[in-house]
Amino acid sequence: SQQGEEDPQALSIQEGENATMNCSYKTSINNLQWYRQNSGRGLVHLILIRSNEREKHSGRLRVTLDTSKKSSSLLITASRAADTASYFCATAISTTSGTYKYIFGTGTRLKVLA
Amino acid sequence: DTEVTQTPKHLVMGMTNKKSLKCEQHMGHRAMYWYKQKAKKPPELMFVYSYEKLSINESVPSRFSPECPNSSLLNLHLHALQPEDSALYLCASSQGTGSSYNEQFFGPGTRLTVL
After folding, report:
1. I need a labelling partner for B94 at 20 to 30 A (CA). Which of A34, A48, A54, B53 fits?
2. How far is B16 from chain A (nearest CA, A)?
């Protein structure tokens, strides 16, 4: 089963509005990462928030983390048409070999209308 | 150079064909990954190589065979695939696999269609 469940699955907003997407996860984490994927392309790392952080900013991005609720949110302010993409949260899971692998959430498809 | 390259961009193959996907990075990363992604779904991990050794195989069918010839290259050999294997295949790299803080760098993917 997925480590991260995201909602909404799809979001359509007007340019200039804010977009908020949420991610819930199941196990304890050291950090949570957010990635963006433009249609049919590779993923691009956006931001990492550590488990001891509650909020982090990067440009127009604001990420919050609530470890008690096992949830995170990504806010994109003053959205632009170029923000149209799918957004995934990702968490690292330790394996029996002592390495980490990354599990992606179900994703939110954001469409920003000009 | 912070780029991961993948070739080919598109591949159409029959169920009896043998083909290979290629991935390359020159960031000095020691971990490389193959993911499979179906439309409107998240990437699903297939294989992880750490220091050129296979460290994770997510129970992938043997018709997919990964190979890491050196620290910069990662191949995925395909043989006797099924139509349901049609997907976007993504390669990624990171500094290592021993930390949960590694950022992954993704290539643009190979769009595979199996007829």
Report:
1. A54
2. 26
Q: pLDDT by residue (tens digit) across A45-61?
A: 999 999 999 999 999 99
- Does residue A58 sit at the B interface (CB-CB below 8 Å)? no
Phi, psi of A60 (to 5 degrees): -90, 5
Contact A34, A87 (CB under 8 A): yes
Question: 3-state DSSP: chain A helix, strand, coil percent, rounded to 5?
Answer: 5, 60, 40
- What is the full DSSP assignment across B59-98? S--TTEEEEEEETTEEEEEEES--GGG-EEEEEEEES-SS
Give pLDDT tens digits for B36-59: 999 999 999 999 999 999 999 999
Tell me whether A92 touches chain B (CB under 8 Å).
yes
Q: Inspect the interface and report whether the beta carbons of A30 and B100 lie closer than 8 Å.
A: yes
Confirm or reject contact between B66 and chain A (CB < 8 A).
Answer: no
pLDDT band at A108, cuts 50/70/90? very high
Give the model's confidence band at A1: pLDDT under 50 very low, under 70 low, under 90 confident, else very high.
Answer: very low
The answer to whether A88 contacts chain B (CB < 8 Å) is yes
